[in-house]
Amino acid sequence: MKWIKMSKISTIFIFCVKILIEMKFKMLRILVFLLFVTNIPLQAQDDLGALLEGGTADAEILVQQYIEPLVDGSGFGLSGGWYNTAKTHKPFGIDLSITATAAYAPNSDLSYNPEGLGLTNIEFVDPNQEYPTALGDTQPIPRFNVIDDNGDIITDTPIEGPVGFDFLEDIPSIFSNAVPVPMIQLGIGLVKNTDLKVRYGQDFGLGDDDFEFRVLGFGIQHDIKQWIPFVKKLPIDVAVLLAYTDIDSEVQNIGGIEDLDDRLEFDTNVFTGQLLVSKQFSVFTIYSGFGFNAISSDVNVLGTYQLESDEIIVDPVTLGFNSGGGRATFGARVKLGFFSIFTDYTFQEYDNWTIGLSLINIRENKNGIL
Questions:
Q1: How does residue 3 score in pLDDT terms, banded at 50, 70 and 90?
Q2: How far apart are the first and last CA of the chain?
Q3: 117 burial level (CB within 10 Å; 0-12, 13-18, 19+)
Q4: What tens digit of pLDDT does each residue of 172-196 get?
Q5: Per-residue pLDDT averaged across 329-352, rounded?
Q6: For residues 161 and 126, what is the distance between their CA atoms, to the nearest angstrom?
Q7: Using CA atoms, how far apart are residues 159 and 253, in angstroms rounded to an integer?
Q8: With 90 as the cut, is the pLDDT of residue 281 above it?
Q9: What angle do CA 268, 65, 115 make, to 5 degrees?
Q10: Are 192 and 229 contacting, i.e. CB atoms less than 8 angstroms apart?
Q11: Which of 1, 81, 220, 369 has minimal Cβ neighbours within 10 Å of its Cβ?
Q12: CA-CA distance, 159 to 325, in Å (whole number)?
């Protein structure tokens, strides 16, 4: 029976790790797909130049329409997966968790209409059509020309923009129109029923000198039940969570003048504050969290670029995004020996669904396994 139980645990562990690996590499491909201004392939330098012929203002408008849902989804996804109980560790108690979060875009963010964007030197072949954002469908393909101040077309053939990208096409369709956010996190108990949580990752072994990626996050979860007399007697756990995650990423050599530091930067900062409540029933725990997110992101195409007209453009695209708002999470955890599996759903602007695996009981407290 013990062998059967461990076999089941191993199967669950392998499944969660498989999803993590799938999501990890697809998430890293986001940085490549942010290169909308290069029509996705890095070798499409002619399209980059042609698009910039239409002016940096128009280029920024199109880049923003396409990638804003992706950027927002990444931020909301990073706010998830921080906890699976309100109960804190005893001093030096440790848990290691692997999570996979899908941040679902609302329908309104799956497409954009070029009408009303205020474009001056870019003209869509069919301006009345709805075109997919990065999280949208794979059809229709946006096609547009660059026009001069007199309204004359100056591109030889229409430029094809990118369509929606299914980051998780190889795993269940319930992840459609979602931004995948995988994470590995370590938690350790400090004094006064306080946990320190740490997230860290860098490059993930891509082996590409032109690509840099780093994620760093810190969180503090503190048991406030101990300080409130009437709450102290209730058969529940209550805590507050304050957490911050920062992602810095860069793709170099994207088509600018050689040796002039052309690159794309994608940086996101996410802060979340939540009130956590949980109740344990033997091996089963239900938990919830209520609070807010504050998210800021920057997407910049930097460097020096020379157009066919011999005009030199420096740092053509610099975009800033801010989002956030209230959130409510509801989840459940099941303990299986040294492992726990958990899942939760968060209601917010971009709803989150998180699944995870937690390695616990590296240190038992006097009441048994955490």
A1: very low
A2: 24
A3: middle
A4: 555 567 787 888 899 999 999 999 9
A5: 93
A6: 13
A7: 21
A8: yes
A9: 165
A10: no
A11: 1
A12: 37
User: How would you label 128-153 residue by residue, b for 16+ Cβ within 10 Å and e otherwise?
Assistant: eeebbbbbbbeeeebebbbbeeeeee
| Cα–Cα dist 85/280, whole Å | 9
> What backbone torsions phi and psi does residue 108 show, to the nearest 5 degrees?
-65, -20
More confident residue, 203 or 77: 77
- 150-164, 247-261, 297-311, 336-350 — most confident range: 336-350
Looking at the predicted structure, is the pLDDT value of residue 6 above 60?
no
CA 193 to chain CA centroid, nearest Å: 30
The answer to whether 174 and 184 have CB atoms below 8 angstroms apart is no
Residue 294 pLDDT > 90: yes
- 260-293 in b/e burial notation, b at 16+ Cβ within 10 A? eebbbbbbbbbbbbbebbbbbeeeebbbbbebeb
pTM higher than the cut 0.85 = no
Nearest to 159 by CA among 118, 122, 121: 122
- Spatial CA neighbour of 273 closest among 347, 323, 327: 327
Percent of the chain surpassing pLDDT 70: 73
Determine the distance from the C-alpha atom of residue 6 to the mean position of all C-alpha atoms in its chain, rounded to a whole number: 33
Strand partners of residue 45:
none
Nearest to 265 by CA among 275, 254, 255, 274: 254
- The most distant pair of C-alpha atoms in the chain lies apart, rounded to whole Å, by 80
3-class secondary structure, 334: strand
> 131: which residues sit within 8 A by CB, 6+ positions away?
111, 112, 113, 114, 124, 140, 142, 161, 163
Mean pLDDT rounded to a whole number for the chain: 78
Helix (H, G, I), strand (E, B) or coil at 92: coil
Whether 336 shows a pLDDT value over 50: the answer reads: yes
Single-letter amino acid code for the residue at 174: I
The answer to whether the bond into 140 is cis (omega within 30° of 0) is yes
CA–CA distance, 240 with 96 (Å, rounded to integer)? 20
Q: Nearest Cα to 96, choosing from 333, 287, 343, 357?
A: 357
| Residue 150 CB partners (closer than 8 Å, separation 6+) | none
